[in-house]
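Continuing the series of single-chain predictions for the mutant panel. This is the parent chain; the variants come on the following pages.
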Amino acid sequence: MRYVILRDDDTNAFTPANYLEYLYRPFLDYGLPVNLSVIPSVRSDLILPDGRPEGFLTAKEGDAPPLVPIEYNPELVSYLKINAGYHIVQHGCHHDPCEFDRENRDDVIHRLDQGTTDLKNAGFATPRTFVAPHDRFSRISFDESAKRFAVLSTGWFELRRLPVAWWPRFVWKKLTGEPHWRVGNTILLSHPGCLLSYRRPYDTMLDNIKASIHSQKLTVLVTHWWEYFRNNEPDDNFIEVLHKTAAYLVGNSGIRVITFDDLWKTDFPLS
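Parent structure:
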């Protein structure tokens, strides 16, 4: 049996509920869980190096306060609660640049705890999985995140960014070639890059996803909702690939789509 976790990043107070509905209705109808990595209180003035707004702010209209908690979009919050197939993951706090690639422990602690508070204020359960913006953790961020969350999902691990106490386990992971590992009670997951992305060729995307799934026991499949709606226009060809992915996952008896919570609730064997 192969296992897949679908992780969609960057849902925030400016995300239109109908965008998620368009993308994930097939998944919900098939009974496939969708893990939404939610920005608890998004910074509304984030811009890219070329001066354009961040992609996940694509649907923002007019002026907005500097920080906008997810609860300020009651339509979205209600939609996520009504559809039990969505599972909420904490994605940073404000999604500031390199937000958790920081060495100030007090700042890291504040952001971790404030993000959790903002999600709970919106009526969501206390999150047990954490995703750092841009998948970047400092040594301190790894340490403090592991104290608060059962699962940390990121792109890769580097020795210099890990707490020194984790080094023996990391070396063993490297020697065995396993993509996922544990430290104490915390599960540490890597992923093979954003396989579902408009930056990749559409005609080979699903084949690459299949190859990744069959190369290991557990694959974290990462995507971003806003990539399907660049400039607020649906990319129908890209959306078609996503929906074909859903059909492939549900139609293959050797694959099971699970949630991050399934890992710590069932003491899931990572290898």
